[in-house]
Amino acid sequence: MANADLLTPIDWHHPGLLPLAEPGMRLSQTADWISAINELAATRKLRNHRGLPVRFVPQSYLPEGAAYESHISATGNVPTRENLHDFFNALIWLRYPRIKVRLNELQAAQITTPPQAGDPTMKPVRGKLRDAATIFDENAAIFVATSPESLEALRLHRWEELFCRCREKFWEKCHVSLFGHALLEKLVSPYKSMTAHAWLLLADSQFNTWTAAEKDAWIDQTMVSQLNETLTTRLFTPLPIMGLPGWWHPQDIAFYEDKAVFRPKRVLSTAT
Hints:
This protein has helices spanning 3-7, 21-28, 33-43, 68-75, 84-95, 97-110, 128-139, 148-155, 159-165, 170-173, 181-186, 212-226, 253-256; strands at 55-58, 77-80, 140-145, 174-178, 195-202, 237-240. It is of the alpha/beta class.
C-alpha cells in the first residue's frame, strides 16, 4: 500500500494525534516511511534493553516460530508491516522510547522457551504480567493530573464531575497522552465508545509549566519505574477518551448521560 493511501486519512489536528503530527506528517510525505523512521531512530540513538540499536525491519525478518518480543529483545529489530497499526507503533517508539524498551524487556522475560527449541507447534506461555504489558502497549492512555481529586474522579467514574463541572479547567489540571498503538489506529476513524486502559500519574503543579517535550520526557522516565513485575490489569482505569473535553462533538448533557459509554463504577458485592 502506498504511503498516500495508508496515511492520508489521518487527521493530525485531532488532539489525540496532534503530539505525533510533526514526525507523522513528515513520514507521510516520504515514499518509504520505514526507511525514514529508521533514520530518525538512528539520529535519536534508540537502543533496546541490551543496548542494541532499534531498527524497524520487514515482518518477513521474524524467523518462523520466533516470538515477536523475544526477537526485538535479542536483535533490536522490530518486525514492521506496511499498515497503520505498525506505523503508530513506530511513532510511539520515537515518542516514549524508555517505556517501549521497558515493556519489551518485561514481555521478553515472561516468554518461556519451549522444550523443543524451534518447534513451531510449541507456543510461548502467557501470564498475567505479559497480558498486562500487552494491554498497556496496545491500548494505554497515560492520564497525568496535578490534583488528586481529578485522579479520584476518574477512578470512581465520576464523569459529570470530571468532564462537566470541571470542564473549563480540565486541561489546566489534566494531561492525557495516548500510548497504545491500537488505540491510536482506532482514532483515525473515531467512535464514541472508544475506551482506553488509563494509567494514572500524579504530578507536581510545576508540570503545567513545562513544554510538551519536557512533559513527554517526565512521563517516559516516570513510567519506567512503575512498569515492573507487579504489573497487572487491575492497575488500569477505564477512560472513554471521546469524553475528554474537545475530543468529540457535540459533548452536550445527553452525550455524557449515555451509560453504555460512561458507565458507573461497579460496586463489588460484600455478600458471602
